[in-house]
Protein backbone atom coordinates (compact mmCIF):
# COMPACT_ATOMS: atom_id res chain seq x y z
CA UNK A 1 0.00 0.00 0.00
CA UNK A 2 2.82 2.40 0.94
CA UNK A 3 4.56 1.50 -2.33
CA UNK A 4 1.38 2.22 -4.31
CA UNK A 5 0.96 5.56 -2.53
CA UNK A 6 4.56 6.54 -3.30
CA UNK A 7 4.15 5.65 -6.97
CA UNK A 8 0.86 7.59 -7.07
CA UNK A 9 2.46 10.75 -5.64
CA UNK A 10 5.51 10.43 -7.89
CA UNK A 11 3.18 10.19 -10.92
CA UNK A 12 1.22 13.25 -9.82
CA UNK A 13 4.49 15.14 -9.32
CA UNK A 14 5.73 14.14 -12.81
CA UNK A 15 2.47 15.27 -14.44
CA UNK A 16 2.65 18.52 -12.48
CA UNK A 17 6.21 19.10 -13.69
CA UNK A 18 5.20 18.42 -17.31
CA UNK A 19 2.28 20.86 -17.06
CA UNK A 20 4.51 23.45 -15.42
CA UNK A 21 7.13 23.05 -18.18
CA UNK A 22 4.43 23.33 -20.87
CA UNK A 23 3.02 26.44 -19.22
CA UNK A 24 6.50 27.97 -18.99
CA UNK A 25 7.16 27.16 -22.66
CA UNK A 26 3.78 28.60 -23.64
CA UNK A 27 4.45 31.68 -21.52
CA UNK A 28 7.92 32.05 -23.04
CA UNK A 29 6.48 31.75 -26.58
CA UNK A 30 3.73 34.25 -25.73
CA UNK A 31 6.34 36.68 -24.41
CA UNK A 32 8.53 36.26 -27.51
CA UNK A 33 5.51 36.91 -29.76
CA UNK A 34 4.33 39.90 -27.76
CA UNK A 35 4.41 42.94 -30.03
CA UNK A 36 5.84 40.96 -32.96
CA UNK A 37 3.88 41.12 -36.20
CA UNK A 38 2.52 37.65 -37.00
CA UNK A 39 0.94 37.09 -40.42
CA UNK A 40 -2.37 35.30 -40.78
CA UNK A 41 -0.60 32.34 -42.44
CA UNK A 42 1.76 31.94 -39.49
CA UNK A 43 -1.16 31.55 -37.06
CA UNK A 44 -1.90 27.98 -38.13
CA UNK A 45 -3.67 27.24 -34.84
CA UNK A 46 -6.47 29.57 -35.98
CA UNK A 47 -7.32 27.87 -39.27
CA UNK A 48 -5.83 24.37 -39.68
CA UNK A 49 -8.86 22.67 -38.14
CA UNK A 50 -11.06 24.64 -40.53
CA UNK A 51 -9.14 23.27 -43.52
CA UNK A 52 -9.08 19.64 -42.35
CA UNK A 53 -11.31 17.33 -44.36
CA UNK A 54 -11.92 19.92 -47.09
CA UNK A 55 -10.67 20.04 -50.68
CA UNK A 56 -8.65 23.25 -50.81
CA UNK A 57 -7.89 25.62 -53.66
CA UNK A 58 -4.98 27.90 -52.76
CA UNK A 59 -4.24 31.25 -54.44
CA UNK A 60 -0.52 31.62 -53.82
CA UNK A 61 2.91 32.59 -55.12
CA UNK A 62 6.47 32.73 -53.79
CA UNK A 63 5.40 35.22 -51.09
CA UNK A 64 3.01 32.68 -49.57
CA UNK A 65 5.00 31.45 -46.60
CA UNK A 66 4.38 29.75 -43.29
CA UNK A 67 7.53 30.59 -41.39
CA UNK A 68 10.24 30.25 -44.02
CA UNK A 69 8.54 27.44 -45.91
CA UNK A 70 6.12 27.60 -48.84
CA UNK A 71 2.48 27.57 -47.70
CA UNK A 72 1.79 24.81 -50.20
CA UNK A 73 4.52 22.55 -48.84
CA UNK A 74 3.66 23.38 -45.24
CA UNK A 75 -0.06 22.72 -45.56
CA UNK A 76 0.47 19.48 -47.49
CA UNK A 77 2.91 18.28 -44.78
CA UNK A 78 0.24 19.10 -42.18
CA UNK A 79 -2.25 16.82 -43.93
CA UNK A 80 -4.25 19.47 -45.78
CA UNK A 81 -5.73 18.32 -49.09
CA UNK A 82 -4.73 21.00 -51.60
CA UNK A 83 -6.25 19.98 -54.92
CA UNK A 84 -5.26 23.08 -56.95
CA UNK A 85 -2.98 26.10 -56.68
CA UNK A 86 -3.90 29.31 -58.52
CA UNK A 87 -1.03 31.65 -59.45
CA UNK A 88 -1.28 35.43 -60.13
CA UNK A 89 0.88 37.70 -62.34
CA UNK A 90 4.55 36.56 -62.31
CA UNK A 91 3.38 32.98 -61.71
CA UNK A 92 3.29 30.65 -58.71
CA UNK A 93 7.06 30.82 -58.31
CA UNK A 94 7.23 34.58 -58.96
CA UNK A 95 9.80 34.24 -61.75
CA UNK A 96 7.82 35.50 -64.78
CA UNK A 97 8.41 39.01 -66.08
CA UNK A 98 5.84 41.76 -65.62
CA UNK A 99 2.92 41.34 -68.00
CA UNK A 100 4.16 37.95 -69.26
CA UNK A 101 1.49 35.33 -69.98
CA UNK A 102 1.90 32.41 -67.58
CA UNK A 103 0.83 28.88 -68.54
CA UNK A 104 -0.81 26.17 -66.43
CA UNK A 105 1.57 23.52 -65.09
CA UNK A 106 2.12 21.00 -62.30
CA UNK A 107 4.12 21.56 -59.14
CA UNK A 108 7.15 19.29 -59.51
CA UNK A 109 7.42 18.65 -55.76
CA UNK A 110 3.79 17.82 -54.91
CA UNK A 111 2.23 17.06 -58.31
CA UNK A 112 -0.56 19.57 -57.54
CA UNK A 113 -1.99 21.28 -60.66
CA UNK A 114 -1.11 24.99 -60.89
CA UNK A 115 -3.72 27.11 -62.65
CA UNK A 116 -2.52 30.44 -64.02
CA UNK A 117 -4.74 33.46 -63.41
CA UNK A 118 -2.52 35.48 -65.73
CA UNK A 119 -2.85 33.30 -68.80
CA UNK A 120 -5.93 31.91 -70.55
CA UNK A 121 -8.23 33.19 -67.82
CA UNK A 122 -7.88 35.81 -65.08
CA UNK A 123 -10.83 34.44 -63.14
CA UNK A 124 -11.21 30.85 -61.91
CA UNK A 125 -13.79 29.02 -64.02
CA UNK A 126 -16.72 26.98 -62.77
CA UNK A 127 -14.96 23.80 -63.91
CA UNK A 128 -11.76 24.77 -62.06
CA UNK A 129 -13.73 25.27 -58.84
CA UNK A 130 -15.94 22.18 -59.17
CA UNK A 131 -13.81 19.91 -56.98
CA UNK A 132 -12.96 22.60 -54.39
CA UNK A 133 -14.75 23.01 -51.05
CA UNK A 134 -12.86 26.09 -49.82
CA UNK A 135 -10.65 28.67 -51.50
CA UNK A 136 -7.71 30.17 -49.59
CA UNK A 137 -5.99 33.43 -50.61
CA UNK A 138 -2.46 34.00 -49.32
CA UNK A 139 -0.47 36.56 -51.33
CA UNK A 140 1.65 39.53 -50.24
CA UNK A 141 0.45 42.88 -51.62
CA UNK A 142 2.16 46.30 -51.60
CA UNK A 143 -0.88 48.59 -51.49
CA UNK A 144 -1.07 50.16 -54.97
CA UNK A 145 -3.95 50.23 -57.45
CA UNK A 146 -1.51 49.31 -60.23
CA UNK A 147 -0.15 46.24 -58.42
CA UNK A 148 -2.32 43.51 -59.93
CA UNK A 149 -2.79 41.25 -56.90
CA UNK A 150 -5.95 43.17 -55.95
CA UNK A 151 -7.32 42.52 -59.45
CA UNK A 152 -6.74 38.81 -58.90
CA UNK A 153 -8.43 39.10 -55.50
CA UNK A 154 -11.57 40.58 -57.08
CA UNK A 155 -11.73 37.91 -59.79
CA UNK A 156 -11.30 35.12 -57.22
CA UNK A 157 -13.99 36.64 -54.98
CA UNK A 158 -16.35 36.98 -57.94
CA UNK A 159 -15.80 33.35 -58.95
CA UNK A 160 -16.32 32.17 -55.36
CA UNK A 161 -19.57 34.14 -55.05
CA UNK A 162 -20.89 32.79 -58.35
CA UNK A 163 -20.07 29.21 -57.40
CA UNK A 164 -21.08 29.34 -53.74
CA UNK A 165 -17.54 28.85 -52.43
CA UNK A 166 -16.21 30.47 -49.27
CA UNK A 167 -12.91 32.37 -49.40
CA UNK A 168 -10.50 32.22 -46.47
CA UNK A 169 -7.93 35.04 -46.51
CA UNK A 170 -4.66 34.66 -44.65
CA UNK A 171 -3.95 38.35 -44.21
CA UNK A 172 -0.54 39.99 -44.47
CA UNK A 173 0.68 43.52 -43.63
CA UNK A 174 0.71 46.21 -46.32
CA UNK A 175 4.22 47.77 -46.22
CA UNK A 176 2.76 50.98 -47.70
CA UNK A 177 -0.39 51.08 -45.56
CA UNK A 178 0.64 54.41 -44.02
CA UNK A 179 -0.07 56.29 -47.28
CA UNK A 180 -3.47 56.84 -48.89
CA UNK A 181 -2.75 59.26 -51.71
CA UNK A 182 -3.13 60.18 -55.35
CA UNK A 183 -6.05 60.95 -57.63
CA UNK A 184 -9.07 58.64 -57.40
CA UNK A 185 -9.91 56.83 -60.64
CA UNK A 186 -13.51 57.74 -61.51
CA UNK A 187 -13.82 57.13 -65.25
CA UNK A 188 -14.21 53.67 -66.79
CA UNK A 189 -12.05 54.67 -69.78
CA UNK A 190 -9.00 54.47 -67.51
CA UNK A 191 -9.69 50.88 -66.48
CA UNK A 192 -7.07 48.38 -67.58
CA UNK A 193 -5.10 45.35 -66.40
CA UNK A 194 -3.13 47.74 -64.16
CA UNK A 195 -6.18 49.31 -62.54
CA UNK A 196 -9.84 48.31 -62.22
CA UNK A 197 -10.79 49.93 -58.90
CA UNK A 198 -12.10 53.40 -58.06
CA UNK A 199 -9.42 54.06 -55.47
CA UNK A 200 -6.48 56.46 -55.17
CA UNK A 201 -3.13 55.25 -56.46
CA UNK A 202 -2.32 53.94 -52.96
CA UNK A 203 -5.26 52.61 -50.95
CA UNK A 204 -3.70 51.90 -47.53
CA UNK A 205 -5.41 48.54 -46.96
CA UNK A 206 -4.31 44.96 -46.45
CA UNK A 207 -5.68 42.22 -48.70
CA UNK A 208 -8.22 41.29 -46.00
CA UNK A 209 -9.39 44.88 -45.70
CA UNK A 210 -9.51 45.32 -49.46
CA UNK A 211 -11.66 42.18 -49.76
CA UNK A 212 -14.14 43.70 -47.31
CA UNK A 213 -14.07 46.92 -49.37
CA UNK A 214 -14.85 44.99 -52.58
CA UNK A 215 -17.76 43.24 -50.87
CA UNK A 216 -19.12 46.39 -49.26
CA UNK A 217 -18.78 48.81 -52.17
CA UNK A 218 -20.65 46.74 -54.73
CA UNK A 219 -17.78 45.60 -56.94
CA UNK A 220 -19.34 42.12 -57.06
CA UNK A 221 -22.80 41.21 -58.35
CA UNK A 222 -23.23 39.15 -55.20
CA UNK A 223 -21.13 39.23 -52.05
CA UNK A 224 -18.41 36.66 -51.48
CA UNK A 225 -18.54 34.74 -48.20
CA UNK A 226 -15.32 35.70 -46.40
CA UNK A 227 -13.36 34.41 -43.44
CA UNK A 228 -10.24 36.42 -42.57
CA UNK A 229 -7.34 35.39 -40.34
CA UNK A 230 -6.04 38.76 -39.18
CA UNK A 231 -2.41 39.79 -38.73
CA UNK A 232 -1.52 39.82 -35.04
CA UNK A 233 0.07 42.81 -33.28
CA UNK A 234 -0.25 45.07 -36.33
CA UNK A 235 -1.37 48.57 -37.23
CA UNK A 236 -1.04 50.53 -40.47
CA UNK A 237 1.76 52.76 -39.21
CA UNK A 238 4.12 49.91 -38.36
CA UNK A 239 7.17 49.46 -40.60
CA UNK A 240 7.12 45.99 -42.12
CA UNK A 241 10.06 44.46 -43.95
CA UNK A 242 8.94 41.78 -46.36
CA UNK A 243 10.58 38.37 -45.76
CA UNK A 244 10.64 37.65 -49.50
CA UNK A 245 10.42 39.64 -52.73
CA UNK A 246 6.74 40.08 -53.67
CA UNK A 247 7.62 40.16 -57.40
CA UNK A 248 10.79 40.00 -59.53
CA UNK A 249 11.28 43.77 -59.82
CA UNK A 250 10.58 44.53 -56.18
CA UNK A 251 13.76 42.85 -55.03
CA UNK A 252 14.70 45.13 -52.11
CA UNK A 253 12.81 46.80 -49.27
CA UNK A 254 13.88 50.15 -50.76
CA UNK A 255 12.14 49.23 -54.02
CA UNK A 256 8.99 48.15 -52.19
CA UNK A 257 8.78 51.50 -50.41
CA UNK A 258 9.62 53.58 -53.49
CA UNK A 259 7.36 51.60 -55.83
CA UNK A 260 4.18 53.69 -55.28
CA UNK A 261 6.04 56.86 -56.38
CA UNK A 262 8.38 55.43 -59.02
CA UNK A 263 5.84 53.26 -60.79
CA UNK A 264 4.29 56.52 -62.02
CA UNK A 265 7.20 56.71 -64.47
CA UNK A 266 6.03 53.65 -66.39
CA UNK A 267 4.41 54.95 -69.55
CA UNK A 268 6.87 57.87 -69.71
CA UNK A 269 10.22 58.28 -71.47
CA UNK A 270 11.97 57.51 -68.18
CA UNK A 271 13.32 54.06 -67.34
CA UNK A 272 12.58 53.21 -63.69
CA UNK A 273 15.38 50.68 -63.28
CA UNK A 274 13.79 47.79 -65.15
CA UNK A 275 16.52 45.91 -66.98
CA UNK A 276 18.89 46.30 -64.02
CA UNK A 277 19.17 44.60 -60.65
CA UNK A 278 18.17 47.91 -59.04
CA UNK A 279 14.57 48.30 -60.28
CA UNK A 280 12.38 50.99 -58.71
CA UNK A 281 15.34 52.61 -56.98
CA UNK A 282 16.84 54.47 -59.98
CA UNK A 283 15.43 56.67 -62.75
CA UNK A 284 16.94 57.78 -66.03
CA UNK A 285 16.92 58.20 -69.80
CA UNK A 286 19.58 58.71 -72.51
CA UNK A 287 18.20 62.19 -73.25
CA UNK A 288 19.18 63.36 -69.76
CA UNK A 289 22.91 63.08 -70.52
CA UNK A 290 24.62 66.24 -69.32
CA UNK A 291 21.81 66.95 -66.85
CA UNK A 292 22.77 64.22 -64.35
CA UNK A 293 26.06 62.49 -63.57
CA UNK A 294 24.60 59.18 -62.38
CA UNK A 295 24.28 56.64 -65.20
CA UNK A 296 23.39 53.00 -65.84
CA UNK A 297 22.53 50.74 -68.78
CA UNK A 298 19.29 48.67 -68.83
CA UNK A 299 19.60 45.25 -70.49
CA UNK A 300 17.25 42.32 -71.01
CA UNK A 301 17.07 40.19 -67.85
CA UNK A 302 15.04 36.95 -68.18
CA UNK A 303 12.43 36.61 -65.47
CA UNK A 304 12.62 40.32 -64.66
CA UNK A 305 12.45 42.57 -67.72
CA UNK A 306 13.28 41.21 -71.17
CA UNK A 307 12.44 44.44 -73.03
CA UNK A 308 12.98 47.38 -70.69
CA UNK A 309 12.61 50.98 -71.79
CA UNK A 310 15.91 52.18 -73.38
CA UNK A 311 17.32 48.66 -73.51
CA UNK A 312 21.11 48.63 -74.11
CA UNK A 313 21.34 52.44 -73.94
CA UNK A 314 23.10 54.40 -71.22
CA UNK A 315 20.59 56.29 -69.07
CA UNK A 316 21.29 59.34 -66.90
CA UNK A 317 19.22 60.40 -63.94
CA UNK A 318 18.52 59.89 -60.24
CA UNK A 319 20.00 57.29 -57.90
CA UNK A 320 17.53 56.76 -55.05
CA UNK A 321 19.05 53.61 -53.58
CA UNK A 322 20.10 55.53 -50.48
CA UNK A 323 17.11 57.83 -50.34
CA UNK A 324 15.80 58.06 -46.76
CA UNK A 325 12.42 56.36 -47.06
CA UNK A 326 11.46 57.65 -43.62
CA UNK A 327 10.71 60.90 -45.49
CA UNK A 328 7.83 59.12 -47.22
CA UNK A 329 6.52 57.81 -43.91
CA UNK A 330 6.67 61.28 -42.37
CA UNK A 331 4.85 62.95 -45.26
CA UNK A 332 2.37 60.08 -45.75
CA UNK A 333 2.33 61.08 -49.41
CA UNK A 334 3.48 59.93 -52.81
CA UNK A 335 6.55 61.81 -54.03
CA UNK A 336 5.62 64.07 -56.96
CA UNK A 337 8.85 66.07 -56.92
CA UNK A 338 10.79 63.49 -58.95
CA UNK A 339 8.13 63.43 -61.69
CA UNK A 340 8.03 67.23 -61.89
CA UNK A 341 11.84 67.49 -61.82
CA UNK A 342 12.50 64.97 -64.58
CA UNK A 343 9.78 66.41 -66.81
CA UNK A 344 11.38 69.86 -66.50
CA UNK A 345 14.84 68.41 -67.21
CA UNK A 346 13.73 66.34 -70.22
CA UNK A 347 14.63 68.14 -73.48
CA UNK A 348 11.92 66.64 -75.72
CA UNK A 349 8.84 67.33 -73.63
CA UNK A 350 6.45 66.34 -76.41
CA UNK A 351 7.65 62.75 -76.04
CA UNK A 352 8.03 62.57 -72.26
CA UNK A 353 4.61 61.01 -71.71
CA UNK A 354 3.57 57.92 -73.65
CA UNK A 355 1.49 58.53 -76.74
CA UNK A 356 -2.26 57.97 -76.62
CA UNK A 357 -3.33 54.57 -77.90
CA UNK A 358 -5.24 54.73 -81.16
CA UNK A 359 -7.98 52.32 -80.03
CA UNK A 360 -8.71 54.01 -76.69
CA UNK A 361 -7.35 57.54 -76.89
CA UNK A 362 -5.72 56.96 -73.49
CA UNK A 363 -1.97 57.03 -72.84
CA UNK A 364 -0.16 54.32 -70.83
CA UNK A 365 0.75 56.95 -68.23
CA UNK A 366 -2.89 57.95 -67.78
CA UNK A 367 -3.93 54.31 -67.33
CA UNK A 368 -1.48 53.97 -64.47
CA UNK A 369 -2.53 57.21 -62.78
CA UNK A 370 -6.24 56.59 -63.40
CA UNK A 371 -6.84 60.02 -64.92
CA UNK A 372 -5.42 62.30 -67.62
CA UNK A 373 -5.48 65.30 -65.29
CA UNK A 374 -2.04 64.78 -63.73
CA UNK A 375 -0.32 64.57 -67.13
CA UNK A 376 -2.02 67.79 -68.26
CA UNK A 377 -1.11 69.52 -65.00
CA UNK A 378 2.58 68.56 -65.27
CA UNK A 379 2.70 69.83 -68.87
CA UNK A 380 1.00 73.09 -67.85
CA UNK A 381 3.48 73.66 -65.01
CA UNK A 382 0.90 73.47 -62.23
CA UNK A 383 2.52 73.52 -58.78
CA UNK A 384 2.65 70.42 -56.58
CA UNK A 385 0.41 72.12 -54.02
CA UNK A 386 -2.24 72.86 -56.65
CA UNK A 387 -2.00 69.32 -58.04
CA UNK A 388 -2.62 67.85 -54.60
CA UNK A 389 -5.52 70.23 -54.03
CA UNK A 390 -7.14 68.96 -57.25
CA UNK A 391 -7.30 65.43 -55.80
CA UNK A 392 -10.00 66.66 -53.45
CA UNK A 393 -12.76 66.03 -52.54
CA UNK A 394 -12.30 62.56 -54.08
CA UNK A 395 -9.37 61.59 -51.87
CA UNK A 396 -11.08 62.60 -48.61
CA UNK A 397 -14.28 60.87 -49.69
CA UNK A 398 -12.37 57.64 -50.34
CA UNK A 399 -10.62 57.86 -46.96
CA UNK A 400 -13.99 58.10 -45.23
CA UNK A 401 -15.29 55.05 -47.15
CA UNK A 402 -12.10 53.13 -46.38
CA UNK A 403 -12.54 53.44 -42.60
CA UNK A 404 -15.62 51.17 -42.76
CA UNK A 405 -13.51 48.20 -43.81
CA UNK A 406 -10.37 48.51 -41.69
CA UNK A 407 -9.30 45.60 -39.50
CA UNK A 408 -6.32 47.42 -37.96
CA UNK A 409 -5.76 50.89 -36.43
CA UNK A 410 -4.50 53.71 -38.65
Automatic annotation (TrEMBL):
Peptidoglycan beta-N-acetylmuramidase NamZ C-terminal domain boundaries: 257-408
Signal peptide start and end residues: 1-25
An annotated Gene Ontology molecular function: peptidoglycan beta-N-acetylmuramidase activity
Coiled-coil region list: none
Domain Peptidoglycan beta-N-acetylmuramidase NamZ N-terminal: 56-253
Keywords per UniProt: Signal
PANTHER family documented for this protein: HYPOTHETICAL 460 KDA PROTEIN IN FEUA-SIGW INTERGENIC REGION [PRECURSOR], PEPTIDOGLYCAN BETA-N-ACETYLMURAMIDASE NAMZ
Protein name per the record: DUF1343 domain-containing protein
Organism of this sequence: Pedobacter polaris
Amino acid sequence: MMRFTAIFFLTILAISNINCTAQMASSKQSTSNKGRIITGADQTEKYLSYLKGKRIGLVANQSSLIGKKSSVDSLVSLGINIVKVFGPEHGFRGNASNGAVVSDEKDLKTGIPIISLYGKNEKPTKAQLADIDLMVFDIQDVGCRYYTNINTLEYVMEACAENNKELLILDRPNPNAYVVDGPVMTDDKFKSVIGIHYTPMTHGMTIGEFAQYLNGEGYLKEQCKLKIIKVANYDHNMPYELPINPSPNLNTQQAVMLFPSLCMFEGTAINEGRGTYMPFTILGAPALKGKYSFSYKPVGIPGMSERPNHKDSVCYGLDLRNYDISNLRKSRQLNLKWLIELYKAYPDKAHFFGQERANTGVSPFDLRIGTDQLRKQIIAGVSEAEIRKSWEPGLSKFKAIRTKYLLYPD
